[in-house]
UniProtKB/TrEMBL annotation:
Stretches the record annotates as Disordered: 147-197
Keyword hit for Ion transport: no
Organism: Aeromicrobium choanae
UniProt keyword annotations, A-Z: Membrane, Transmembrane, Transmembrane helix
Segments traversing the membrane: 12-31, 63-83, 95-126, 207-233, 267-288, 294-327
Native organism taxonomy: Bacteria, Bacillati, Actinomycetota, Actinomycetes, Propionibacteriales
Biased composition, class Low complexity, residue ranges: 159-175
Keyword DNA-binding: no
Cleaved signal peptide residues: none
Protein name: Uncharacterized protein
Domain of life: Bacteria
């Protein structure tokens, strides 16, 4: 019988998930139209009253928006796994909600309501019922608030009925007490949350390996093909950029030439190919069950999430996949499986 989830945890996960989804959509739309004249003019009009140089601030601002997008996606994923009792996701959601509240408070009165919502999420995740529920879900037995721990007393010697010392029968000095008959049900092992399965790898580990393997395989093949085209057909690609009016206007708004764009693409896809190959190696390493394989896959997933932000909106899929892999590898049964060696 599963332990019912407290209402405070449910509300926190709903608020965090909806806030993350809404923020992801808004930030994605902002990045998708970043190179348009309308967005650039709107950003310039907002920065000029503050005395900031738009040409110097806009590149940094774009990186900030990318980081916020990664954070909003992470908040959405953390909300889902927090609702299932995942302790690391609860901590991650609390940190993101707290940072979001601080950021909204810095914007003034306009960010007061979102800041209150972020603080409310943190409070709901750490109420007394929430702490007890997470303790139970992660294999710990919490003490009820306001009660002292009970110390089990020594077991009462069992004496069969009809013998001296049995209930209703007087005990005789020096009379040996018969032990109870063996009952297999009393000695059965009760599986605890996070315990290892009787055979094979845990489900979270299998899911993490499946997602990372597919993502890095697709990334390696796709980036390899594009990189080959950029290197072998550099002049043709540059000519296509120069002859296409729409692409040329985008290059002009970004302040780079077609040749510089091809060079930048070559470096980006080359870097993505390297990360994908490292990811495949880390996935195979983790599949062996080595404890260092866990660290390798987690580190590569973090690097992947950061590098994929450069390739938005396509990189959104790899950001989401990297966060799910990290969450799955952080589950207690996954960590226990890697520590078994």
């Amino acid at each position: 019988m599963s332990t019912p989830r407290p209402r405070s945890v449910t509300l926190a996960c709903v608020y965090g998930g909806l806030g993350g989804v809404l923020a992801t959509v808004a930030l994605y739309e902002a990045l998708a139209g970043w190179g348009s004249i309308e967005v650039q003019e709107a950003l310039r009009q907002g920065l000029e009253p503050l005395g900031a140089d738009p040409d110097a601030v806009l590149p940094t601002l774009r990186w900030v928006v990318m980081a916020l997008l990664v954070g909003s996606i992470a908040a959405t994923v953390f909300s889902f796994f927090t609702a299932r009792g995942h302790q690391s996701s609860r901590i991650g959601l609390s940190v993101l909600a707290g940072l979001g509240a601080a950021g909204f408070l810095a914007t003034g009165v306009a960010g007061l309501l979102p800041a209150i919502l972020g603080l409310l999420i943190v409070y709901l995740l750490w109420t007394a019922p929430a702490r007890e529920w997470f303790a139970v879900m992660n294999g710990r037995t919490p003490l009820s608030l306001g009660t002292a721990p009970s110390v089990p007393s020594a077991p009462t010697p069992f004496t069969p009925a009809g013998q001296p010392g049995a209930p209703g029968q007087p005990a005789q000095p020096g009379q040996p007490v018969q032990p109870p008959p063996y009952d297999p049900a009393q000695h059965a092992t009760v599986p605890q949350p996070g315990a290892l399965p009787p055979g094979g790898r845990p489900r979270p580990v299998g899911l993490a390996l499946l997602i990372s393997g597919i993502a890095y395989l697709v990334g390696a093949l796709g980036s390899g093909v594009v990189l080959l085209a950029l290197v072998a057909l550099r002049d043709e690609v540059t000519k296509q950029y120069e002859q296409n009016d729409l692409l040329q206007r985008q290059l002009d708004s970004a302040g780079i030439t077609a040749g510089e764009m091809v060079t930048l693409g070559t470096w980006l896809f080359g870097g993505w190919l390297v990360i994908s190959l490292l990811g495949l190696g880390a996935t195979a390493w983790a599949a062996s069950g080595a404890p260092t394989g866990w660290w390798a896959l987690v580190v590569v997933s973090v690097v992947t999430a950061g590098f994929a932000a450069l390739g938005l909106p396509v990189g959104l899929v790899w950001i989401l996949g990297a966060i799910v892999v990290i969450v799955q590898l952080s589950r207690p049964e996954a960590k226990a499986w890697f520590r078994r060696a």
